[in-house]
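This protein record is not my work; I was only asked to verify it. The record follows directly below this note.
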Amino acid sequence: MEIRVLRYFLTVAKEQSFTKAAEVLHITQPTLSRQLAGLEKELGVTLFDRSGHHITLTDEGLLLKRRALEIVDMEEKIVDELRGNQEPIAGKIMIGCGEFMAVETLAKICRSYCKKYPLVQFAIHTGTADTILEMMSKGIVDIGLFLEPVSTENLDYIRLPGSDHWVVAMKADDPLAKKDEITKADLKHLPLILPERTNVQSELANWFGKDFQKLHIVATSNLGTNAGVLALEGIGYPISIEGAVRYWREDLLVQKRLSPAIETSTVIAWRRNIPCSPAVECFIKELNAYKA
């Protein structure tokens, strides 16, 4: 399986047309078709559904697309790392994170770094801790920003200053919006939207105590923004960290801190004893300097 052919496959998947993909790739359509027919034969599966007006991916095609994107991204990282041994420092740094207040600190560190190394590009991937950890283990993500608790096995990390507070969000005209803080009694009979991560739910279980098992959990969400959309439709009340929520429009959704308060710290981590590009090495030095 050649990376070149995987790039052909990804282009067809994106354009949903062999003709358009061939134009983008600057090759003939028969050549493209032969290459991908050979890929299907090599894998022993059908990758494309050709029955409609547009080319769509089969289940096997969707799986290959996900893996092909990882492989192509890894190839680009290898090239960046090898070329990065030459001055000046250039390349790409892949950062994975959730919607945390600590992203503001990360942004300040990135701003300082960019002034020193203007040829380096940042790629920010927003996702859950489990997703980011998996991508780090595969070498796709260089730096991970995690809300505690999180396993830091095989990782070096620093704990960023400041803490995120846990809040509940509601529509601006909700009666609870008039309160300064929200208690367990306010929430135990309401439809709630909880974070998806199990260990984060455990933190909330400790806060609710014996009432946790009686809660009306209408949905879970891995990102606070999507939970906010559900809240706007009156589906439930999202409980999450403040994070990016404070950038919401307060005329639509407001957030109130929980009482008694729950605070959570954030760590920024990278893989221990793993060679990395000069750009990433310089970024890690920037992180440690900020810690100091």
Notes: The mean pLDDT is 87. DSSP finds ten helices and twelve strands in the chain.
